[in-house]
Every structure is written in C-alpha cells, then in structure tokens.
C-alpha cells in the first residue's frame, strides 16, 4: 500500500472510533431513559427510582464500555411478578436479546415497537391478557428464535410478515382467539422445531410440506377447526417426537410415513374424521408411548406391529370401525397400562393374552361383539387391574369365581351380556370396589350372595334386569358407601331391608319384582302374601282358644282397676306430647345416659344433654353425613346452639371402650390449635356416642363451594382470597396433626368447618384417635374415608398413612380450584376429579380450562395464584406416595402462592 494511502486509512479508522464513542454513550443514555419509563409503567418489585438500572432485579447488562459508560441492557426477565401496564418502552433497548414478561397481568396489545429490536432472540409474553392482533411489525426482530404469545386474548390472523423470521425455532401461539388458516410460510422456516397453536379457531389445512424444510419435533394443533389430511411431510425427515391433532376436522388416512419417526413418543389424533387402516409401519415408531386415535372412522384390524412398541403405555382406539380380534401379541407389551378399544366391531373370545401385561390397569372392551366365557384367571396373581369394562358384548357362561382375585379393582362393568349362573360369593373379596359394580341385563339366577355386604366402599350397584330370586339379604347393610342401587326387574321377594340407601332410592330401583314389598315401594307386604300370611305359625285349637279368652277376661277384670288409676296421668302425658309435636319438638323416650360431661366450665349450665339427644332424632336438624358420623344442629334451652356429632360407632368400638374414649376426648379438648375443631363435651347412652362441638354458623367448605349457602341456610358467595385462606388454614391444621403423630381418617370438604369469620377448622380429629387402626381399635374397613378423597394405594395397602392424608388434602384443593365434586358424571366412566385434572393435557385442555372460570377470570392476580395452587394440588395427588410433599412443605408453597 502507498504510504499516503496508509496514513489516510488510519485517519479514517481513528475518526470512526472518535465518532462512535459519543454514539455508544448516547445508546446507554437511551437505555436509562427506557428503563425509567418501564419502571414507571410496570413498577416491578426491586426497581427503585434511582441507582444503576443494571443492578435491578431481573435485568442483565453487557459489560461496561471501555470508555467507562454503563453497559447496554441485554435481558429483562420478570415472569410471575404481577406486572400490569405499558411495556412498549422495551422497544427502545437496541441491545435487548431476551424479554420474558410471562405470567403477569399485562393488558392491551403486543407493542409493535418490539419489532425494532434487531438483536432480540427470546420473547415470552405468554399467560397475560394481551388482546388485539399479532403485530406484523414483529417481523423486524429478525434474530428471533423463540416467540411465545400463548394464553392471551389475541385475535385475527397470523400475519404473513412473520415468515421473514428465518431463524425462528419455536413458535407458540396457543390459547388465543386466532382465526384464519395456518400460513404456508410455516413450511419454509428452516430452523422450526416447535409449533404450538392449539386452542384457537384456526381453519383450513395443515400446510403441505410442513416438516420438509426443518427438523420439526413438536406439532400441537389440537382444538381448532383444521381440515384436510395429515401431511405425510411431517414424518419424512423422521424428526417428529410429539404429534397432537385432537379435536379438529381432519380427514384422510394416517400416512404410512409415520413409521419413519423412530423417536415419535406421543401421537394423539382422536376426535377427527380420519379413515382407512392404521398403517403397519406404526411398529417402526419404536419409541411410541401414547397412541390415541379414538372417535374417528378408522377401519381394518388392530395392527400386530404395535407389539414392537415396547414402551407403549396407552393404546386408545375407541369408537372407530375396527374389526377382527385383539392380537395376541399385544400381550408382549409389558409397559401397557391402558387398552381401550370400546365402540368398535371387534369380536372373538376374550383376549386372554392381554392379561400377560402385568401393568395393565384399565381394560375396556365394551360395546363390541366379543363372545364366549370369561377366563377364570381374569385377575391373575399380581394383577394391577383397576378398571374392567366388558359390558355390551356377548359374553356367556358364568361370572368366574376368579373375579375375587381382582383385589385392586375400582370399577367392574359386565352389564348387557349373556352371562348366566349365580353371582359368585367371591365378589365380596373385591374390597377395593368403589366406583361401580354393574351386572345388569344378563341372565343371572339364584339368590343375592350375602358377601355383597362386604363391599363397604362401593357407591353404585346395578343388578337390574336379571332373574335373581329370593330375599335381599340383610347383610347388604354393610355397603356403607352405597349411593345408587338398582335391583329392578328380577324375581326378588320378601321385605326390602331397612337400610338408608335403599329407602332413599326411587321406587323404580326395586320395581319389576312381583313379590317384593316395603319402602321405597308403595307395596304393603300383607297385600302381597294375602290374609293367610303367617297363619301356619299361629294355628291353635278351639278349646285352647276358649281357655285363652276366659283367662283374658279374668285378667282384664283384675287389672282394670289398676289401669283406671293411671288413665288420667297417661292422658295428660299424651296431651303434652301432642303439643310438643305440634310445636316441632321431637318426642323421644329419655335414654339412659351412661356418661356425659362438658369440658368447658363456663358452658356447663348452658348445655342440656337431653336436648342434644333429641336433636339427633329429627332429620330437619341434620347438618351433614360423613364416613364416621352424622352431624346435627341442637338448640339448647339456654338459647345456645351446639353441633352434635353422632358416631356411627363401627363394630361398637367406641362405646365398648368408654374409658379410652373419655381420656382421648379430654386430651383433645385441650389441643391448642386454631384450625382444629375441639370437642366441648360428650354423651354416651345405650350403644350411641354423641360428641359436642361449637356450632359453625358458616357451615362446611362443601356447602360453601357447592351449595352457595351456610349451615343456617343463608346465601354466601365464595371468592378466591377467602378460598385460598381456607386452604391454608386446613393445611396448617393438618401439618400440626402430623407433627403430633396423628393421621386423620376422613379429610374431605364436608369435614372442614367455617366459623363466623370464615376461619377453617378441620373436624373429626377425635375420630382419628378413637378409631386408630394402628392401635387395634378399629378395622381398616372403618377408616377408608369418603369416596373420591381416598388415595389409590389404600385399595391394596389397607393402611392409612401420612402421604394418604396429603393426597386427600390435594383432592380438596382441586375441589376448591374447579368447584367440582370429587366424583361427577361429566368426568366419564371410571374417572374421578384427580384423574380428570391429571389427564387434562391428554385431552388438550389447559389449566385455565379446568379451573372455575367464575374465579379465574375475575382477576389475573387471582388466576396467577390459582395456577400456583394447582401445581401444589398436582403434587399432593401424585399417584406414587413417595412423590407427595409433606404438609409442612405444602403450607410453605401455599403461602408463597398467596404472596406472589
């Protein structure tokens, strides 16, 4: 280079550096102004009015410039901070590469100014309340690799200009109100790995060629209105790992190229209009874990190639047009937990081979054309079967006695078959049965086995439309959890036993039995058996009759004078009783009180024990009915209102151990914890025990959530802060119990009481001490708890535990969050609240969709807290007990959620 040229070049470099220095200073000065604007609008915690903005919480800056100026802002990460306001000033931070404002309360539109950030690589604005269109100007942020706008209220079409984001790897826009189609340019993005656009109103086809230009790994488009076929291009490069397309209008067949994806683990394509056969190439996707293709129009047989997918856990092919038999080779799937093929045209004999699947917990063959006998070893040794649905088929023969080996079974559906013979007594061994036992519409004969009474956890029993004869055994009173019963259209005879669930049922539950009488049927037993009913046992000779009559006349003459003496007094007593009855009082004979006391000295004159007893004889006084006791409202002559809890006293355990009971009650009366109900007294008479407590005017959590009224019938409307406070109260009370080595036996919303200020108190604490199976004071059958709250392991461990308490508490949290009962028909057969929540992602539902919108949509602060509590509830209801947190940790997590 010529010397003069060299000098000219050096001069230009120095001049450029001299000019660049003020520019850098100007840039950082611009950052300071922009950060102060963000501070004023968003008011993030930890951002003070002065000082170096690079030291603020969640802010990252580049190293200071050599000139001594401040570094440029490169990242702002403020998720879950409760922020609201305008954040468009972030568009004036030219060095910004990461902006995370997710899970806040931001409103308004997505600022178009963010499109000026040429260095921006990561933008997460999900879980806010942003509305309006997706700004086309975002295409100016040409370095974007991650864009998440999910779970907002954005509308309009996906702008075509975003196709210029050639570096985009993840695009997440799910949970909005977007319309229009998926733009064709998505198929041209060379770096796209994740595309998530579920729960919108998108229509049209999936772009053809999608997956050819990039190694697409995750495609989630469920719950839209997409049409057309599933493009084979998705599978051509073999990179796809997750495919979720449920709840659309897709048609055509499943591409044969699906087998190219060896790493494909999750395929959910149910609730579409797909047709044709499932390709045999599915067996090449050897990493497959979930395959759901239910509610389509698929035909052909179940491919035997599924057996090559050794990790397959769930196979759901329900409600298609599949034919043939269930392949025997599916028995090789050692990890298979659920096989659901209901609602097809499958046939043949019972697929015995699938019983080799040791982890199988749900087998649903219902609504098909299976025939033949059920296998004797239907639940072989070590079986984990919990749901067995074989109804609406053509199975014949008898119910195998081997059914007694199904020791973990929660629901058994055998209705609408051709089964005959008697109901085996071994059915009583299935003590775990809780949800349903349905043997209806078969040809069963013989009498009802007494062993049915052992099913003390069963809620629904349907034996209707058979040929069962004989009397209803009184042993069925042992079915303590029974709510629904149907014995109609059989040949039963005799009197219906006096048993609450029977008399509370509709008459139709017992109709169609010509010789059955008693409540709830409006049939008098004498009218059925005629005037000769029982006469064989009362025939006497004529002479004996005369002797008896003569004796009666003589005796009558002797005692008539004595009777006359008492007539006047008796008439007076009857008149007094009539007056009391007219006044609404219950007239009962005074029982012989064995023991009674009031622990609190100041209340001893205010409580009348006879009033407590009488309150339990009037249904109108009933406040609630739990697993171990029934609660009544009792008004004392003094005007004081008391809650009287009448123990069901399983096996007379409590009243036969009065000394222990009294000692425990006295100890519990002095427990000093604000969130535990303490007894204030007791009454023991005959074989009954009454526990006395302070009346809780706001009733129970069950009433607050589901009845909108308190114990006194007053309307009340729950709000989230109150519900969260109740949840924390209960958690603290339960944590204290665990600290003092006490395991509660029946945690449910009906046992959570609310005082006048809506402070929550956990009830039936004393039951946990009086019926303690670890000390031999009651059988485990007495301590199963309330249906829907019982942890799954209780069905086979038969042992109450601390993790079991945590599970039950988790159900209460889910009840609070969803405002749904633990068991509801809308969940479907064999699904309770816990499973309904845990399987929400599989159904394509977001957390927001399962929470009560009356609470979650009021305020984004409420929704944020509810999402945090939902995470706690999910941890508490983990299937594996070892994964559940301790209650002390639960309290900490709830407090953190409240303060977030």
TrEMBL record:
One of its GO terms (cellular component) is membrane. Residues 1-25 form the signal peptide. It is a single-pass type I membrane protein. It comes from the Eukaryota. PANTHER family: LEUCINE-RICH REPEAT RECEPTOR-LIKE TYROSINE-PROTEIN KINASE PXC3, LRR RECEPTOR-LIKE SERINE/THREONINE-PROTEIN KINASE-RELATED. It is found in: Membrane. One of its GO terms (biological process) is plant organ development. This is Protein kinase domain-containing protein. Residues 617-900 form the Protein kinase domain. One of its GO terms (molecular function) is transferase activity. Keywords: ATP-binding, Glycoprotein, Leucine-rich repeat, Membrane, Nucleotide-binding, Receptor, Repeat, Signal, Transferase, Transmembrane, Transmembrane helix. It holds the Pfam family LRR_1. The keyword Transferase applies. The chain crosses the membrane at residues 544-568. Its main location: membrane.
């Amino acid at each position: 280079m010529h010397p003069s040229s060299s000098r000219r070049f050096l001069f230009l470099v120095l001049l450029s550096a001299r000019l660049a220095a003020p520019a850098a200073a100007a840039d950082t000065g611009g950052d300071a102004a922009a950060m102060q604007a963000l501070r004023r609008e968003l008011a993030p915690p930890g951002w003070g009015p002065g000082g170096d903005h690079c030291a603020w919480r969640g802010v990252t800056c580049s190293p200071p410039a050599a000139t001594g100026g401040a570094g440029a802002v490169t990242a702002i990460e403020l998720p879950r901070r409760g922020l609201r306001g305008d954040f468009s000033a972030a568009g004036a931070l030219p060095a910004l590469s990461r902006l995370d404002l997710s899970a806040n309360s931001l409103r308004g539109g997505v600022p178009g100014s963010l499109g000026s950030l040429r260095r921006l690589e990561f933008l997460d604005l999900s879980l806010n309340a942003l509305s309006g269109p997706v700004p086309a100007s975002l295409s100016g942020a040409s370095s974007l690799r991650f864009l998440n706008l999910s779970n907002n209220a954005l509308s309009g079409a996906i702008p075509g200009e975003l196709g210029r984001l050639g570096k985009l790897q993840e695009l997440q826009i799910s949970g909005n109100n977007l319309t229009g189609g998926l733009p064709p340019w998505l198929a041209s993005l060379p770096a796209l790995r994740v595309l998530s656009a579920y729960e919108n109103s998108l229509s049209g086809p999936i772009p053809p060629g999608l997956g050819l230009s990039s190694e697409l790994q995750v495609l989630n488009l469920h719950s839209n209105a997409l049409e057309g076929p599933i493009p084979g291009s998705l599978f051509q490069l073999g990179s796809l790992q997750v495919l979720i397309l449920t709840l659309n209008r897709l048609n055509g067949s499943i591409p044969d190229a699906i087998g190219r994806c060896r790493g494909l683990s999750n395929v959910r394509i149910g609730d579409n209009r797909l047709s044709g056969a499932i390709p045999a190439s599915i067996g090449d996707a050897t990493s497959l874990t979930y395959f759901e293709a239910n509610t389509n129009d698929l035909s052909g047989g179940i491919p035997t190639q599924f057996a090559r997918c050794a990790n397959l856990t769930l196979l759901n092919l329900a409600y298609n047009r599949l034919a043939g038999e269930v392949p025997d080779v599916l028995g090789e799937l050692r990890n298979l937990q659920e096989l659901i093929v209901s609602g097809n045209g499958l046939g043949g004999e019972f697929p015995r081979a699938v019983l080799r699947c040791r982890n199988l917990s749900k087998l649903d063959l219902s609504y098909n054309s299976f025939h033949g006998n059920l296998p004797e070893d239907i639940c072989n040794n070590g079986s984990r079967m919990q749901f067995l649905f074989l109804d609406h088929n053509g199975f014949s023969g008898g119910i195998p006695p081997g059914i007694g080996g199904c020791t973990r079974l929660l629901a058994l559906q055998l209705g609408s078959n051709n089964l005959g013979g008697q109901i085996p007594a071994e059915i009583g061994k299935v003590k775990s049965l809780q949800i349903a036992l349905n043997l209806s519409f078969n040809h069963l004969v013989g009498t009802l086995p007494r062993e049915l009474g052992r099913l003390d956890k069963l809620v629904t029993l349907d034996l209707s439309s058979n040929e069962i004869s004989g009397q209803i055994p009184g042993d069925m009173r042992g079915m303590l959890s029974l709510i629904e019963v149907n014995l109609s259209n059989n040949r039963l005879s005799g009197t219906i036993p006096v048993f609450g669930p029977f008399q509370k049922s509709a008459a139709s539950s017992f109709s169609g039995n010509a010789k059955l009488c008693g409540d709830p049927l409006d049939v008098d037993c004498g009218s059925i058996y005629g005037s000769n009913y029982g006469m064989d046992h009362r025939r006497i000779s004529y002479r004996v009759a005369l002797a008896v009559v003569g004796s009666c006349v003589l005796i009558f003459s002797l005692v008539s004078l004595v009777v006359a003496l008492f007539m006047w007094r008796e008439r007076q007593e009857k008149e007094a009783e009539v007056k009391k009855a007219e006044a609404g009082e219950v007239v009962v004979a005074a029982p012989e009180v064995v023991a009674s006391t009031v622990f609190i000295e100041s209340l001893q004159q205010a409580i009348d024990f006879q009033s407590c007893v009488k309150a339990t004889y009037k249904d109108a006084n009933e406040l609630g009915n739990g697993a171990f006791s029934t609660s009544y409202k009792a008004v004392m002559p003094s005007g004081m209102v008391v809650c009287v809890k009448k123990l069901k006293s399983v096996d007379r355990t409590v009243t036969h151990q009065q000394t222990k009971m009294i000692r425990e009650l006295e100890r519990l009366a002095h427990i000093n914890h604000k969130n535990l109900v303490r007894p204030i007294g007791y009454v023991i008479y005959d074989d009954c025990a009454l526990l006395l407590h302070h009346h809780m005017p706001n009733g129970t959590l069950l009433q607050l959530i589901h009845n909108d009224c308190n114990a006194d019938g007053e309307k009340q409307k729950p709000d989230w802060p109150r519900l969260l406070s109740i949840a924390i109260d209960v958690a603290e009370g339960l944590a204290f119990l665990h600290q003092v080595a006490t395991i509660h036996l029946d945690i449910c919303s009906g046992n959570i009481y609310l005082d006048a200020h809506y402070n929550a108190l956990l009830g039936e604490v004393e039951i946990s001490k009086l019926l303690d199976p670890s000390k031999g004071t009651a059988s485990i059958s007495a301590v199963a708890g309330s249906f829907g709250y019982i942890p799954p392991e209780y069905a086979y461990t038969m042992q109450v535990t601390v993790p079991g308490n945590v599970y039950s508490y988790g159900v209460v949290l889910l009840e609070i969050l969803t405002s749904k009962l633990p068991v509801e028909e809308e969940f479907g057969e064999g699904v309770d609240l816990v499973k309904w929540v845990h399987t929400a992602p599989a159904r394509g539902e977001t957390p927001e969709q399962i929470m009560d919108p009356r609470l979650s949509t009021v305020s984004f602060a409420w929704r944020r807290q509810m999402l945090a509590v939902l995470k706690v509830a999910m941890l508490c209801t983990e299937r594996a007990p070892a994964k559940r947190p301790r209650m002390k940790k639960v309290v900490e997590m709830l407090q953190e959620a409240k303060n977030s």
